[in-house]
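anyone else get weird line breaks when pasting these?? whatever heres mine. first is seq + tokens for prot A
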Amino acid sequence: MKIIILGGGASGLMLANILVKNHINADIEIIEKYEHVGKKLLITGNGRCNLTNTNITTKSYNNDFGYNIAKSFDTIQFFNELGLLTYIDNEGRVYPYSLVSNNVLDILRENLNNIKISTSTNIIRIRKKEQQYELTSDSNQTFKADILVLATGGKTYYKDSNSYILANFLEHKVVPLRPALNYLKVQENLSSIENIRCKAKAYLITNNQIIYEDYGEVLFKKEALSGIVIFQLSSIIAKNAYNNYLIELDLLPNMSEDEIVKHLKKFPNMIGMFPKMINQYICKVANTQDPLIISKTIKHLPFHVVENIDYKTAQVTSGGVDVNELKDTLESKIHDNLYFAGEIIDVDGLCGGYNLQFAFASANKVAQDILLKVGTLNEKK
């Protein structure tokens, strides 16, 4: 019995680990397009590897399918049992205690010394031939699998990803793709406040309706807004990219407009409120010295969204293989012994460890179903 895991990222490595840990009665091979496995894993969480989040809810993902998969796996326990110490911050984000992503990759690779990993191997065609899957690389190498798992990731980071073409070869629909968890380009010129950060409550508005709100740090770029709270808004936009969107920032969410007016009447120069350049930007937008209008501007500072930036700067791909074509085990409803795991599936979560949680949890779902089908070496004995 031969199992091929196509993709050596977070979900592919996790899947192989679980199969090996349970002494699967089969040969396993990971085929990775690039020269090293786990390249994207190394840059997650700004190089600290935000493994998961302790605050998973239905609102964490774009659909219930993804949420149900994500909540089914204890990522912290899994890594603790492998010897990785973990740290949980005040927002529920979970990191390796070292805050170094290499530790996570090293632990995942350590248990895979006895399985074959073929790197720098670009699979360009897959076809089902009788009861097997035949994979062909761009150098005309041929691989055959009894069980095939596509864990090839999305379009983010790897701009030349062919994950979805491979899914199409196997007759699977792909929900339209958009970059998500990304900074947002806006119409306003922000060069005067470029690289300044502030805490704010952010409102995402379309058709004069607030459709999402969140609080967190905002980073001003020359022509864009960034920061975790903006990443969250970009994820919402990605799901319906063709509306016109307005972002309003409330720079003082703990004060009412009346309270701000009273403060401005006492301190009209605004010293002590925000960084000097932010003060000047607010006055420029308000275009008046009237405390009422300045107060309203502070509570509703407007930015008109132009677009999500490209996939290379995005953290995750919105869209992917249609979940309606997958069983709860992540096996294809179209072909037996074909599975999908990770970012290739139309599941994306908010920023804060939710997407890696889905990658690991989906790998576990696939692993448990394969183990039931194939059995273990201990059972064979």
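and prot B, same format (seq, then tokens)
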Amino acid sequence: MILLDAGPSDWVLFFGHFHPVLVHLPVGMLVLAFLMYFFSKEQHEGLRQKSVATIFLWASLSAFISCAMGWALSQTGEYDEDTLFFHQWLGISTGVISAALAYMAKFWSDEKTMMKLFKPVLWVSLVLITITGHLGGNLTHGSDYLTAYLPQPIRGWVGMEARAEAAEGGAIIPKIDNIQQAIVYQQLVQPVLKQKCWSCHNAEKQKGKLRMDTPEFLMAGGEDGAIIKAGMPLESEMIKRLLMDASEEHHMPPKGKTPMTEDEIAVLQWWVQHGADFKKKVVALPADAKIKTILAKYASGTSSTEPYWSPVFKMSISEADEDDIASLRKLGLLVNPAAKDQAFLEVNAVNAHGLADKELSELSSVQEQIVQLKLGQTKVTDSFMPQIADMPILIQLDLDHTNISDKGVVALENLKYLESLNLYGTQVSDAAILSLAKIKSLKRVFLWQSKFTEAGVAKLKKMRPGLTVDFGFKGKWPLEIDTVRVEETAK
């Protein structure tokens, strides 16, 4: 008979996850005892010693309980063994020294010679708990967790490379001067993985026994096998988990972490689709209109995502019915919260490009909650625009690469809160200028590869000073010059 290792029991893992909660108790107690000992008045010596002894006793007990929970957590096998070894034994040492300090404070308080050891041991305990905490941070957040957001010019002083600027919405959009010669993995893919994935999948911590911080480990996969199938993005576990609804257990990044943007996911899909090669440059990979749009943002160092401070988010609205949301998800739509602890919804058709007006009509069941609607590359037509116009709190509408025309834009004129309208790759032309100008809340419109002309853009800007118009490239692909953004700041 062959006995298979079933791994740690659920009870062990359950208690292990209390370690991050309990570990702060001994830390706080040691700091409190330190402050009491060095800053209390000498005339209260007896009370000080008694209080300090009690605090150290509880610090010791909580440290040992925390160590036990830490051992249980380590059984997941997700952490670097060397870092874990030192973190574990320094934690145990802190508990032992806390017990020694409790004993010394209680029984040696009248022994002046013996109490000479108390202060040095107390300092040692503080050093130990500092190092132990730092190693715990390495295990949880990666070895660069202290320096990841070190600002300039300090980064330059210590020889660290500058961070890419954070674009609106939290996405990192590094400006790449020669986008065609950029190495796809190194300059487009790796920065995204570093920002969104490495904190849980690095040298110190391997959640799911997966490391993603080097090409070799990324392709090796984790406990469930490979996460990337070159040439097959929709069969690659990494992509599948990114495209899951945020409500699903296996969605990545997990709840509480900053999710990837639609552009970031599209770049990863594009890289995997064309072989997941670690050395190829942008010029070597075929790029469709959507990818060209994204590459344009890298070329200019800008993001298409607006930081919405809309009055909509101050409103109190009722929650959508869960059955209605479930019906939309069955169509392949992603339906996720658009704001924390509020009923606002984002609906995204990134996984459902085949949907047409008939299927999309089911959005009426949640139209009171939708603030972001992304229907790019679907089969939506002008006939569906009146239904969108009935969405009372819509802030962002993406209709890129659809068959929407000037007639469809007319139906959107009365949207009260619409701030961002994406019409990339549509049939919308200069004839829609008046309709766009009538959307008083509109702050940004995307018109690259539409039927708009430069003269039309200039006229729109004249009618609506302050409106940002993204008009894309002057010239042909591949890029020979930087993107041109027709933009004017309101005065």
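btw re prot B: Strands lie at 334-337, 345-348, 370-374, 396-398, 420-422, 444-446, 468-470. Residues 311-470 form a domain with the Leucine-rich repeat, LRR (right-handed beta-alpha superhelix) fold (CATH 3.80.10.10).
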